């Protein structure tokens, strides 16, 4: 029996497609296969005859039911999986049809970026304000079950298809988390939201701050609106926060780069033979503010393109930790029977020729983050008290522990949890009940935000950079 945390996440989701929410790469248009393999007859003789022999052995000896079509698809999946590239995969006819239906349409989602790591779909980062973040999903969480079905070893697109669905329907995820015993089940209600990509504020009379959470459609317009607002407030210095930004559309990051990267290259693409496929440039003549960029291990794809260009042009000081390292381009190649193969066909390079994929972008000033504190605020739906359990109890306990109060056994509101709540209430002038009502939840979130900012070593380093 799994531990079960139930959470209804109404009014939280994303307008999603396979490209926008679950993958962090870029895609070229679908193509017909025109590949001419070397020594095709030898390959056909060795491979096809052995495959046929195995099928005959199964047909003549296997005790049980089987589906030859499923066996065939499994063989093709393993062929592509043997490349060892988490972004390349075989797509069955059904996968291709699902992909076509979902591209550009609105689906209910959970708002997390995922990748394939060691045969498990793994959370890269929950998007800010998303159901995944509200539920308490964390970077590194491994999705091993969807709606009670084992998904270990399945392709990324196949698992994504299982997670996506109609708004207001429920998806149950089985999660393996480091440091937590067993599988944790989350029941999440899919929904659709219009997610904000950027937020900004003036930290003092000349220092501005923009947090950019993704590079999806509309991010460029949001960025420009916030940038212009800060300039109207007489901003002279800017901190651009790309931490946890999983990427998005190439056009969005190129447009934003034109406001930040000096005239010259932003990024270029090469295939496996070193042939230059495309070069993208900036025409920015002058920038009227100094710039620091914050990055971390969850900054990926488009974030790395921007950070890499700024670093190579010496147009910003980069602070934080080395980025995720996702800088490849995938091409979906149609096969004759309606199936397809998604293959990595090229890589992005920074202006100075540095590869991003598998390497990432390193900072000028390396600053790690404080352990803990990487979790969402408490989402109040009802009071929390003794004997309660679930996702929000886990979030509450994370907050209590981060604020140095007793937290109790993870996932269960026990005596220690109650003690921690009572101590918090006493410290902040609230009625000492040991129950988390709306007033207590709001105060917890307020104090959490304040303490997270105070303990944000990377942001503090960026502010000190301008002040010293």
Explain the overall architecture:
Helix 8 (250-257) packs parallel to helix 9 (302-312). The chain is of the alpha/beta class. The chain folds into 3 domains: 3-16 and 106-189, Roll (Pdz3 Domain); 198-366, 2-enoyl-CoA Hydratase, Chain A, domain 1; 372-468, Muramoyl-pentapeptide Carboxypeptidase, domain 1, CATH 1.10.101.10. It starts with a strand and ends with a helix. The radius of gyration is 24 Å and the shape is flat. The longest helix has 22 residues, at 40-61. The chain has helices at residues 18-22, 40-61, 68-81, 93-102, 131-135, 156-163, 219-232, 250-257, 302-312, 391-402, 415-427, 438-454, 457-467, and strands spanning 3-6, 26-32, 89-91, 112-117, 120-126, 142-146, 149-150, 170-176, 184-189, 198-202, 207-212, 237-241, 264-271, 276-282, 290-295, 317-320, 328-334, 340-349, 365-366. Strands 1, 4, 5, 6, 7, 8 and 9 form a 7-stranded mixed β-sheet that branches. Strands 2, 3, 13, 14, 17 and 18 form a 6-stranded mixed β-sheet that branches. The chain has a 6-stranded mixed β-sheet with strand order 10-11-12-15-16-19, with helices on both faces. 32% of the residues lie in helices and 23% in strands. The protein is built from 13 helices and 19 strands.
Distance from first to last alpha carbon = 56 Å
The tally of helices reads: 13
Morphology: flat
Strand content: 15-25%
Question: Using only CA atoms, what is the Rg?
Answer: 24 Å
Q: Tell me the total number of β-strands.
A: 19
Poorly predicted parts? 1-25, 31-38
CATH class category label of the largest domain = Alpha Beta
CATH topology of the largest domain: 2-enoyl-CoA Hydratase, Chain A, domain 1
The structural domain count equals 3
Summing up helix and strand content along with how strands pair, one would put the structural category as alpha/beta
The CATH superfamily of the largest domain is known as: 2-enoyl-CoA Hydratase, Chain A, domain 1
Largest sheet: 7 strands, mixed
What percent of residues adopt helix (DSSP H or I)? Answer: 25-40%
Overall pLDDT, averaged?
85
Query: Which architecture of the largest domain would the CATH scheme give at its second level?
Result: Alpha-Beta Complex
């Amino acid at each position: 029996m799994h531990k079960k945390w139930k959470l209804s996440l109404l009014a939280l989701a994303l307008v999603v497609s396979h490209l926008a929410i679950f993958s962090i790469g870029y895609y070229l248009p679908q193509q017909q296969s025109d590949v001419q393999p070397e020594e095709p007859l030898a390959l056909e003789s060795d491979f096809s005859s052995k495959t046929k022999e195995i099928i005959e052995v199964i047909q003549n000896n296997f005790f049980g039911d089987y589906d030859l079509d499923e066996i065939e698809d499994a063989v093709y999946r393993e062929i592509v999986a043997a490349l060892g590239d988490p972004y390349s995969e075989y797509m069955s006819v059904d996968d291709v049809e699902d992909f076509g239906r979902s591209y550009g349409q609105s689906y209910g989602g959970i708002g997390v970026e995922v990748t394939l790591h060691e045969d498990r779909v793994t959370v890269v980062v929950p998007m800010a304000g998303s159901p995944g973040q509200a539920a308490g999903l964390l970077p590194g969480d491994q999705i091993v079950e969807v709606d009670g079905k084992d998904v270990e070893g399945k392709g990324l697109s196949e698992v994504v298809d299982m997670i996506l669905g109609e708004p207001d329907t429920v998806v149950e995820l089985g999660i393996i988390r480091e440091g937590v015993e067993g599988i944790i089940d989350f029941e999440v209600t899919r929904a659709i939201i219009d997610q904000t990509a950027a937020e900004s504020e003036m930290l003092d009379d000349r220092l501005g701050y923009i947090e950019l959470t993704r590079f999806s459609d509309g991010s460029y317009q949001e960025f420009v609106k916030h940038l212009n607002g800060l300039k109207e407030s007489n901003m002279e210095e800017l901190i651009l926060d790309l931490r946890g930004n999983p990427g998005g559309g190439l056009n969005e990051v190129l447009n934003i780069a034109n406001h930040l990267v000096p005239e010259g290259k932003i990024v270029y693409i090469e295939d496996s033979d070193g042939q230059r496929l495309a070069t993208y440039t900036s025409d920015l003549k002058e920038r009227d503010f100094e710039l620091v960029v914050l990055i971390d291990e969850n900054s990926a794809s488009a974030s790395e393109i921007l950070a890499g260009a700024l670093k190579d042009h010496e147009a910003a000081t980069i602070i934080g930790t080395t980025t995720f390292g996702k800088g490849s381009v995938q091409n979906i190649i149609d096969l004759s029977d309606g199936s397809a193969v998604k293959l990595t066909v090229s890589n992005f390079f920074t202006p100075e020729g540095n590869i991003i994929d598998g390497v990432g972008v390193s900072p000028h000033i390396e600053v790690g983050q404080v352990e803990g504190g990487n979790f969402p605020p408490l989402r109040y739906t009802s009071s929390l008290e003794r004997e309660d359990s679930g996702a929000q109890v886990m979030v509450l306990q994370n907050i209590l522990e981060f604020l140095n109060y007793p937290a109790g056994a993870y996932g269960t509101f026990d005596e220690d949890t109650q003690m921690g709540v009572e101590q918090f209430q006493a410290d902040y002038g609230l009625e000492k009940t040991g129950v988390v009502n709306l007033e207590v939840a709001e105060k917890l979130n307020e104090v959490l935000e304040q303490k997270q900012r105070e303990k944000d070593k990377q942001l503090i380093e960026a502010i000190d950079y301008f002040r010293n």
